[in-house]
From TrEMBL:
GO terms for molecular function: catalytic activity; transition metal ion binding. The lineage of its organism: Bacteria, Bacillati, Chloroflexota, Chloroflexia, Chloroflexales. Gene3D superfamilies: Nitrile hydratase alpha /Thiocyanate hydrolase gamma (3.90.330.10). Residues 20-47 form a coiled coil. It comes from the Bacteria. It comes from Roseiflexus castenholzii (strain DSM 13941 / HLO8). The keyword Iron does not apply. SUPFAM superfamilies: Nitrile hydratase alpha chain. Keywords: Coiled coil. InterPro entries: CN_Hdrase_a/SCN_Hdrase_g_sf, Ribosomal_synth. This is Uncharacterized protein.
Length: 72
């Protein structure tokens, strides 16, 4: 497994609302630029918007791509 790639995807998902929605809508398509295994893609497909959004809300707004606007 490529833990660093999964971390990059999760990090982007919590800081970039558009990517987060793309990941929820179609994880395989959203992650095509990442070097992920089938197992990792399967796991990412199971993420839900509520969990990602809740995590994103715990981060400092300065980390957001939009400075905190659009995390909802």
């Amino acid at each position: 497994m490529s833990q660093s790639e999964v971390e990059r995807v999760i990090g982007r998902a919590v800081t970039d609302p558009e990517f987060r929605q793309a990941l929820i809508d179609n994880a395989r398509e959203a992650c095509k630029e990442y070097d992920l295994t089938e197992e990792e893609l399967d796991a990412l497909e199971k993420l839900d918007n509520t969990s990602l959004q809740a995590f994103a809300m715990t981060l400092d707004q300065r980390l957001s791509k939009r400075g905190g606007t659009g995390l909802m």
